[in-house]
Amino acid sequence: MNHFLDIHTTSADDLHQIIASAKATKQARLGQPKGALDAELPLKDKMVALIFEKPSTRTRVSFDVGVRQMGGQTMVLSGADMQLGHGETIADTARVLSRYVDMIMIRTFEEQTLLEMAEYATVPVINGLTNRTHPCQIMADILTFEEHNGPIKGKKVVWCGDGNNVCASFIHAAGQFGFDFTFAGPEPLDPEMGFIEEARAKGSKIEIVRDAEEAVKGADLVVTDTWVSMHDPQSARERRHNQLRPYRVDRKLMSHANPDALFMHCLPAHRGDEVTNNVMDGPQSVIFDEAENRLHAQKAIMRWCVGV
Ligand code: CP
Ligand code: NVA
After folding, report:
1. What's the CA gap between 12 and 178, in Å, rounded?
2. In angstroms, what is the span from residue 162 Cα to ligand 2's centroid?
3. At a CB cut-off of 8 Å and minimum separation 6, what does 45 contact?
4. What does the pLDDT look like over 259-284, one tens digit per residue?
5. For residues 286 and 152, is the Cβ–Cβ distance under 8 A?
6. Integer angstrom CA distances of residue 43 from 11, 72, 105, 139
7. Ligand 2 centre distance from Cα of residue 41 (Å)
8. Does 107 qualify as catalytic in the annotation?
9. Where are the domains of the chain?
10. Edge-to-edge strand ranges of the sheet holding 47-52
11. Mind telling me which SUPFAM superfamilies this protein's record contains (predicted)?
12. CA-to-CA distance for 184 and 158, rounded, in angstroms?
């Protein structure tokens, strides 16, 4: 069994295998009703717990549908309703859940919660987002890029905005999938330097550029995300908006990227803040393919977790 905790802690071979498997099983399902079972049922007779300590639309629904298509059953648990939210330790929760279910997906605040869950669970644990990373999202994004524009290896990805959890997983992916990554954002919101150094050590070119138009030149993919993440205090909203406004993705900024560049956003978006409507709904935007691919990528991740 495997835990899927982060992109930089999963081997590059396994990551490539997961993407290939996602492409194949997505293809095999073309034209099937959404509720139809897959031809192969790797989660038959398996129970999967989906724990959410933060809100979610895509992660919740795509994991739920994916487990069912693979023949398993799910339960969606709100962290606040569990004893976990009332003082029971993560270790005890992990050991108890492992007696009932065959896999645990958790969306939480502190990364330590995820790591402790994985340490004490005797079943696979999947990272459904922490304050620090969002690996499932980026696996879906790689799948989406490759479906539209071929191998991501050697391409230039430009992140505009906050150096947040989604940005961190992109930097991890740069190292593992061999693409270049430019961060365009204000210094106080830079991504973690340790992540950048790790990706550089794997041979990827990782740059920090303060001018958004300069950063986007030659981009094959432009990505942004909310300026205020779920774990950020609302009191920081105004300051962040002021810091990040120069990095809003609009048509003018997109015109500096390569003509066939794609635009991605993990969603939910704040239209008019980090990105304009005409980019969100424009011809380079693949935001809804990204959302769909959460389903296909995560099914491949779950299969890898149970070793099927
Ligand atoms: N992109 C993403 O993880 O969306 P949700 O917060 O809706 O799950
Ligand atoms: N950075 C965002 C991603 C939401 C899917 C957050 O953590 O709120």
Report:
1. 10
2. 11
3. 71, 72
4. 999 999 999 999 999 999 999 999 99
5. no
6. 23, 5, 14, 20
7. 31
8. yes
9. 12-133+294-306, 137-290
10. 73-78, 47-52, 103-107, 125-127
11. Aspartate/ornithine carbamoyltransferase (SSF53671)
12. 7
Domain 12-133+294-306: homologous superfamily in CATH: Aspartate/ornithine carbamoyltransferase (3.40.50.1370)
C-alpha span between 62 and 72 (Å, rounded): 13
CA dist 1 and 304 (Å) reads 8
SS3 38: coil
DSSP-based helix, strand, coil % in the chain, nearest 5 = 45, 15, 40
What tens digit of pLDDT does each residue of 8-24 get? 999 999 999 999 999 99
* The two domains 12-133+294-306 and 137-290 share their CATH topology (first three levels equal): yes
Ligand index nearest the alpha carbon of residue 140: 1
CB atoms within 10 A of CB 88: 12
Cβ-proximal residues to 76 (8 Å cutoff; 6+ apart), any chain: 50, 52, 60, 64
DSSP states of 197-221: HHHHHTT--EEEES-HHHHHTT-SE
Of the candidates 240, 179, 171, the one whose C-alpha atom is nearest the C-alpha of residue 7 is 171
Quickly name the fold that domain 137-290 has. Answer: Rossmann fold (3.40.50)
**Would you call 227 helix, strand, or coil by DSSP?**
coil
Query: Quick one: how many helices (H) and strands (E) in the chain?
Result: 12, 9
* CA separation, residue 264 to residues 190, 203, 274 (Å): 20, 24, 12
Strand pairing category for 73-78 and 156-160: unpaired
The string of pLDDT tens digits covering residues 53-111 is 999 999 999 999 999 999 999 999 999 999 998 999 999 999 999 999 999 999 999 99
Contact 141, 290 (CB under 8 A): yes
The residue assigned the tokens 């696996």 is: 139
Contact 114, 108 (CB under 8 A): yes
Could you confirm whether 271 is annotated as catalytic?
Answer: no
